[in-house]
# Entry
Amino acid sequence: MVRTTVVGTYPRVGDTHDEQALRRAIARFDKGGVAEADVRAAEREVVEAVLGEQARAGIDVPTDGLVPWYDSQSHIARGLAGIEIDGLVRYFDTNTYYRQPVVRGAVEWKRPILAEEWTFAQAHSRAPVKAVLTGPVTLASLALDKHYAKRRALALAFADALAREARELVRAGAKHLQVDEPILTRHPEDLALVRDCLEPIAAEKGPAELTLFTYFGDVAKIYPDLLKSPADVIGLDLVQGERTWPRLLKTGTDKPLALGIVDARNTKAEEPAALAAKVRQLRHSVDLDRSYLSPSNGLEFLPRAKAREKLGILARTAKLLEAKR
Amino acid sequence: MSGLQTTSVGSMPKPDYLLHARTKASKGDLDLKELRALEEKATTEWVRFQDEIGIDILVDGEQYRGDMATYFAENLEGMEVSGLVRSYGNRYYKKPIIVGELRRAGPISVDWYRYAQGLTEKPVKGMITGPYTMMDWSFDEHYGSREETAMAFAKLLHAEARDLEAAGAKIVQVDEPALATRSDELPLVVKAVGAVTKGLDAKTILHTCYGNYVDIYSYFNRLPVDQLDLEMSNSGLDLLDRFRKDPLRKEIAFGVVDVHSHVIETKAQVVERIEKALSLFDPQKLYIDPDCGLKTRTVDEAKAKLRVIVEATRSVKAEHGLD
# Structure
């Protein structure tokens, strides 16, 4: 049976008063009205709610929604030695911004960054919670390097630090790890570097399942080589990256995939029957029993109510696939 | 004209009384007439403030807009407004959704332009959120094509620009913060903005911010406007080298204060930034302003940032005999 997962982010705030508690807590903290611990407590309530929404939808492998993350780049980077966090930069082609990490010295792992967040999330989920790591090549590409001079050296330094973080996560009990490398959809020529950087992380993954996810576009040009990456699962954006679809259909793979078929960038609701029919075209070329269905990228770009709706569409698509076997 | 004129990008923070009023109005506890009166009060305060401190080219401060894209969406047929989505950190906005054929029932921003211009002798900019940004910042449940959507917006926004001009606007600014989003779509930006500015007699400005300018630089001189208004401080003035190698053939409004920092730049810092700009641009073609709209700052921070811009510009003008 094809399983369901998400890519990482989930809206932290919704449109009801209750769903905006974290926003209010951060605003009060910024004005000096509450302590940081109060913000952390509000964050944890949102993590519980986000896990609850995924559980009710029936998602097999959820995440904590990356709720505690300020953004995709600075959350991990600010926990590493050698990095300062600077001004806002647009995040790929989204209308969102990240605080740019500036590399001032040797990048080194100092202390666990995600393990505590993951442990909390897992304690509030029956389903195994996937831990998400920003990929070393994406981190190196979106940071401002004032130290290494060569992006490869910086990416490999990030890779070593993230491998150490992966070890902490696995030690804490994580059964699913995901490394996000959206940069591959913009710079497919980075694939060799992505694979090199994944090696030290794969070496630390132990029994956990490691997913390499690419999104915000297609990987059609590098598809066969991408599959040779040292990851257990390859995640593909098949909406914005629809050009990958013909390659997938034609070439197929033995490797488990995360099929990003639900549009996480648009509110328009898909018809589960149409999605199921599309996925069924892959039944002879992809091992669907070992693969996942997922949104095309993190759900944070949608309003909370629409993100919930998309989770429902995902789960119904998986059920339809199962029913017609 | 002495050159080195000061201006603003568009939005100003809303005073507390207006924020409270907007919250009440959204719950139905305040009627729109009362809200309008408070929006006019806040607009008057911002126009007077800019006038008093000596800004040369004014903005209305957008006190009546929630968000730059959402405001136009609320006033166009075929659009709805979604729930909240995150922009960055703890900032959220209500993203528009295109649900049908786009239509403009009548002028959108012209009434506010007239109101603000009626308060001052100095020129007030007409402000339009650009067609590419409107497309890129909306969910599309109708057109299914980014180009078709952008050009549908361009047609409506051209009519809006014509109406602003007819109301007396000598300057029309097209805000395209999404410009640098996808370098493969720059030809579409040029085409869509060109459809808005085509045939206008007013001076046209394109404002953009927070993108990788290096990738899009080759398009700067092709943008069909008279002036580019650019965020320069937040990106650490990285563009200057590029300007040196490949001169800009348009006027430039040069952002000299970071709108996303609570810290007020010192006069010395701003003077240094203006001097750098002056080393590259003719003062007649150089305008000094903040990086972007100031709405994310507090009222006091925004006022302090505008004051330091005016003081630093005066000091540089005196130094160079531009008074």
Remarks:
- Strands of chain B lie at 5-6, 77-88, 91-103, 126-129, 139-140, 171-175, 203-208, 227-230, 251-255, 286-289.
- The two ends of chain B are 9 Å apart (CA to CA).
- Chain B has a mean pLDDT of 94.
